[in-house]
Write a structure and sequence with these properties.
Elements: H1 6-15, H2 19-25, H3 35-46, H4 50-57, H5 61-68, H6 77-87, H7 91-100, H8 111-121, H9 126-135
């Protein structure tokens, strides 16, 4: 069975008078993967260790391990982006990590986000990404 689009779900919510009925009829549409589960899944796909990604991400080791282990609730968008860049995740994977981390997705109409999207798509390091962000007077990934 194929998943409903976001627009389809919005229309169903609008039409349904009872919220419990909406949840009952659409239970398979809800995300049940946690951020830490998704990070573990992606590390497995890329055959990466947490330690390797943390070194590449330039994040504080203790803080980053808390993100990976699910002990850090709602980490900042920049920290999640640093992990994704450090791991070499694709743009699609990065957007999913951001969503599961309850942060805004990358948007191509935002200058800072454009730099990060470019870095993801071209496998540019966090060091180089931060250099470009610094030159553009944008917030660094940290």
């Amino acid at each position: 069975m194929s998943r409903k689009t976001t627009d389809e779900l919005l229309k169903l919510i609008e039409q349904e008078k009872r919220l419990d009925t909406f949840f009952e009829n659409n239970s398979e549409e809800f995300e049940d993967t946690s951020l830490s589960e998704e990070l573990a899944r992606l590390l497995g796909i890329y055959n990466l260790t947490k330690a390797t990604v943390i070194r590449s991400s330039l994040l504080d080791k203790t803080y980053a391990y808390q993100i990976f282990d699910g002990r850090k609730i709602n980490p900042s968008r920049s920290k999640l982006l640093a992990i994704c860049l450090g791991a070499g995740f694709s743009l699609r994977e990065t957007q999913r990590v951001l969503r599961l981390g309850h942060t805004e997705p990358l948007h191509p109409r935002n200058r800072r986000d454009c730099v990060i999207i470019h870095s993801i798509n071209h496998h540019i390091s966090i060091w180089k990404t931060n250099e470009v962000l610094f030159d553009m007077k944008e917030d660094l990934l940290e």
